[in-house]
Amino acid sequence: MSELVSLTGWQGDRREVDWTVAERELGTPLPGDFKELCEVFGRGAFSGFLEVLPVDTAQPYSLLGRWSSLKEQWENPQVQALFDPYPVFEGSGLILWGKSMTEASYYWLADVSQSPEEWSIVARTAPLEDWHRFDAMSTSEFIYRVITDREFRPFSIARKVERPFFDSYR
Predict the structure, then answer these.
(1) 158 and 147 in contact (C-beta within 8 Å)?
(2) Strand 132-134 and strand 120-124: pairing?
């Protein structure tokens, strides 16, 4: 986390986030690293590209809004086919935590039987593209690699952005 703050030059105020509603709705705690990320940076996009979904709102674009919407549509075989081989989270499965301005989606492969710190990240560059799985990688490390690591393909934007930054939506 401190590397992301330093890298982006972020100097915004830390914000309080009420995690109880989201964690109660989901039935699981969220990763501590993600919570710190949201509290340190708030709403916004890294390098104008990677957006972390807000948690403290029930709006359709929020983490809970996206999860609820996917759950409601899950009985549709066409929706299930879009996410194959992964199910929507209901004890285990996908929870969307971020997206890019170019349709990439970033999920945790969550499981209530594991510590949230152990959840894998699964991501893809577009809705019909192949899934990529990253075990033992925190949310902030994933973001750091997207914005700095030229070899972190297919997700890296390091060649496109001269200096990583954070745009706040406040």
Answers:
(1) yes
(2) antiparallel
Segments of 48-115 assigned E as strands = 50-52, 92-100, 105-111
Alpha-carbon Rg of the chain, whole angstroms?
15
Alpha-carbon gap, residue 55 to 103, rounded angstroms: 20
d(Cα 110, Cα 113) in Å, to the nearest integer? Answer: 9
Q: What is the pLDDT along the chain (170 residues), one digit of tens a residue?
A: 899 999 999 998 899 999 999 999 999 999 999 999 999 999 999 999 999 999 977 788 999 999 999 999 999 999 999 999 999 999 999 999 999 999 999 999 999 999 999 999 999 999 999 999 999 999 999 999 999 999 999 999 999 999 999 999 87
- CA angle at 45 for the pair 42 and 46, rounded to the nearest 5°: 105
CA 149 vs CA 30, 152, 157: distances in Å: 26, 5, 8
Q: What's the length of the chain? A: 170
Are 70 and 88 in contact, with CB atoms under 8 Å apart?
A: yes
